[in-house]
Design goal:
about 475 residues, alpha+beta, 5-stranded antiparallel β-sheet, about 60% helix, about 15% strand
Length: about 475
Amino acid sequence: MSIRAKLAWTFILLLIFGITAISSYSILFIRNYLLNEGEQQILNDTEWLAITIRNLQHDDYFETNLNEAARTSGYRLSIYDMDGLLFASVPYHEEAADSDYLDEQIFVQLIETDQVHLLVDSEEDELTAYSKVSGAQNPAEFLKVSIFKDQIYEPIKTIRWIIYTGMFISMGLVILVSILFSRYISRPIIQLESAARDIASGNVNRTIDVDRKDEFGTLAESLNQMAHRFRADNEEMKQLYEKQSQFFADITHEIRNPLHTISGSLEMLEMDNLSDEKRKEYIETASRQTERINRLFKDLVTLQRYDSDSYFIEQKMFDIGKSVKHVIALYDGRAAEKGLELEADTKRCMIYADPDKIEQVLENLVSNAIKYTNKGKIKISVQEQGDEVTVKVSDTGIGISEDHLSRLFDRFYRTDKARSRDKGGTGLGLSVVKSILNAHGSDIQVESKPGKGSEFSFKLPRNEQS
């Protein structure tokens, strides 16, 4: 059974039971009310009927007057003499014929008191009251006034018809309202259930249009946000998958090329008639390619630690001037081989960072500058600016076009793949630089124009940050 049907039947049954209970209680309440009113009324009427009968003359019109009193009052009147013997009863009903004598217990009570006595018996069909008629101008000594309870309950028939008619009309309206209300309540639930099922099956483009300001509207908005989040996550996962696929393809390519070169060099070294000069050349080639693979894995380890190790950097106070000196000493010979001038600012300057990682950043930037600079100079400058130190590595190399700047720090991205591999690059140097600086809460900036050279810069704090 659908939730709409369950809601409809629940409302219908609850309201029908409620209406039926209220109607039954109302009828019972009115019945008891009429009986209580009838009891009070018969007591009052018996008093004035006793006075009326007391004043009736015992003549030829006695019975006529008695009948008129019964007709006017609506009661059945029974007259007993002083011995309790019945001598008149009007109007006559066979189903309620009186005995010839007054009940002995009632007779004694009437003798002893002048009060009106009401006979209350729920099993009797009649409501009966007794009264003494003292000093009458006729033989009447005791009066019995009775009325059938059905006469008292007569208005209930009309009331019951009105109540039942209203009840059935109410039930019809209840059924109609319940169906409409259940549809109104269940419509957003069905929409939400359908949308949730679609989203669970992968249809994250589903949008729920529930224009309501209640909890259903809030839930619909939450599901829409969840679907939007899933769409964003799917797109991100798709991009990550594409990057991962490209990443592994690049690694495979980067390793395969030097391995082929090493393999070829080893094959050539196995030749018997190989000259010493060629043998040395092939050994150096294999060594360079081995070093290239070593740098590749070193960079991969650095990037992997950046992605997963919360202790990737260990910051402390150190003199960046010393790190610049170490880098100059390491690359001075390589720069001289290409006829490049390597200039640096090696003054003492204390900063708060990881000395090994910052030195790695400088090595990558200087090594990259030497690769892509054919003439001119490479300069490392350190500038103190308030609470920060700005480090710049500039060159007079071939520069970088604007089209490549946005992806320059992507892993394995090269502006010129063929030339980059010829220069022994891994394609990860600038990615490592960006990762290390990001871990320090900094970033790498680049300004470059083709043929004009490039300038890489970054900032680091002079003191420990609170």
